[in-house]
Amino acid sequence: MNAVTKLRKAMRLILVGPPGSGKGTQSGRLLSHFQMSAISSGDLLRENIREKTPLGLEAEKIIRDGGLVADDIMVGLIIGELSKRGWVESRSNLSSGVTVSGAMEMLGGTPKTTRLQACEAPSSSFLLDGFPRTKCQAKRLDEQVHMNFVVNLDVPSDVILERIAGRMVHVPSGRVYNTGWNPPRVPGIDDVTGEPLTRRPDDCPEAFAHRLKVYYESTFPLLEHYDKVGLLWTVKGNSSDEITPVLDEEILKRFG
Ligand code: AP5
Ligand code: MG
User: Fold this and answer.
1) Cα–chain-centroid distance for residue 75?
2) Where in this protein does the record put region LID (predicted)?
3) Which of 7, 90, 146, 211 has its CA 20 to 30 A from that of 196?
């Protein structure tokens, strides 16, 4: 696929998969294949850490140790971001809604209680990488925005562990490289900006093992939830190159 394809129906996709399963990699490819946008909860948190916002200072140690940031903060962060980017709008005539005050205050924004409606223009299609990650987050998202496709990246654990050992990232953009598979043109340097690449502090073996455990305890159960409501679609594969064409085809079938 060369040109960017316009979808005919608004897609609101949740990408679920263990750490290192290729969510960020697939997300980057989907953005170059389809007219859509993406939010990575991990990238947003890392941006806050880099900018030393109150939220970033709070999240830094949790992320380094491989734990999960509190649900209230995450819901506020993501819902706030969806509104800011105009992919969802307020519905003033509805009474109940999520309180985003906690996270908005930490982000320096205006506390507010609101309820949202997804924008149905196909150009407002978006994907969420890394959110929701707990049942509580999923329920809060369900209350606010009707997501219409959940993709589960099913990649074997031994493949994942090998990948993480070679991962390098360009933190400001979220671009992901791998020393063995998709190395940068110049070792240790981002292809686009020429800036240095780094290893994520939470990719050390102890934190990574913890992230995997947290995934199977807290996030894996979400698959059952989305399966029950008929949104779950699982794609298996040892490599992102196997997964990408299958995923593209499924998106075209549903939204093209
Ligand atoms: P987040 O940044 O979301 O991390 P993650 O879910 O652990 O996933 P990763 O980003 O590590 O992996 P990925 O699936 O994106 O894989 P990638 O494409 O990089 O979250 C980080 C932390 O933030 C969490 O631990 C938590 O603390 C906090 N957080 C975030 N969201 C939260 C939430 N909702 N609630 C609470 N806390 C939250 O690929 C991995 C590697 O494999 C790369 O090197 C890549 O180049 C390589 N690779 C990809 N495809 C291939 C291939 N085909 N062959 C070989 N290598 C490949
Ligand atoms: Mg990622």
Assistant:
1) 13
2) 166-203
3) 211
| Token duo for residue 211 | 């992230």
Pocket (CB within 6 angstroms of ligand 1): 17, 19-25, 41-42, 45, 62-63, 66-69, 74, 130-133, 137, 163, 166-167, 176-178, 181-182, 202, 211, 239-241
Q: Is residue 24 part of a domain?
A: yes
Q: Rounded to an integer, what distance in angstroms lies between the CA atom of residue 45 and that of residue 246?
A: 30
39 found inside a domain: yes
The answer as to whether 1 is a domain residue is no
Tokens of 132: 């929701």
Reduced to 3 states (helix: H, G, I; strand: E, B; else coil), residue 93 is coil
Q: Which residue has the tokens 């008929």?
A: 230
Q: What is the CATH number of the domain that holds 76?
A: 3.40.50.300
The tokens for 172 are 């400001």
- Give me the domain span that covers residue 46: 12-90+115-247
**Number of domain units in the chain:** 1
